[in-house]
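Predict the 3D structure for this chain.
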Amino acid sequence: MTMGFVVYASHAGSPSCPCHFLIPHKVSSAPEGTQDTSLNIEHTYHNSPIIPHHKPYLAMSWNTSIYVGHVAIEGLATANGIQGNVAKALLDILHHHNIPHVFKWVDNIVIFRSLVQSITSTGSVPPFIYTFDLESGFELMMPLGVPWNPIECKGQDFAWSFKNVGFLWDLKNRCVSLPERKHTKIIAKIDSILSSPNLSIM
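Done. Predicted structure below.
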């Protein structure tokens, strides 16, 4: 069984904090019924084309110097700020449509939704009602033409728990743990190191 750790809210709720700091804050403060979907952009650094007449002015920073990166190697691998601007536009579109709790980390987009009504489940009627689902979210994002990975390959539909930056986040219990597969893999590595005849603590 994977050990879980309770997530506590902190000062990391600032909008200027990176996604991996905002996620713990959101999970720890999520009201009952909050769900999350995790989406992944396909071939992130290869799918944001550079307009030809922008190439002479495309700059990149390296070792405290600035260079003209008119030929961005591997798409945007040397100019990932461009991809970041596209992702920010995606967040702006969702914010405009009253979906405020959206976070990004490179090619990962995390969207939270909170219930607008809680009822007693009767037959086919769900116990929670939300203002949007994954399908309507995709419709809102369609104008930007984001090439999403198929949800079956990477990501998930709205649920009570989700994987992000290598961890499993549990919204119901407000805790975080390692996914079972990663947990097992790390334990195996530790066992291998500890059983090595060349192991030395000196």
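Residues 33 and 149 are 27 Å apart (CA to CA).
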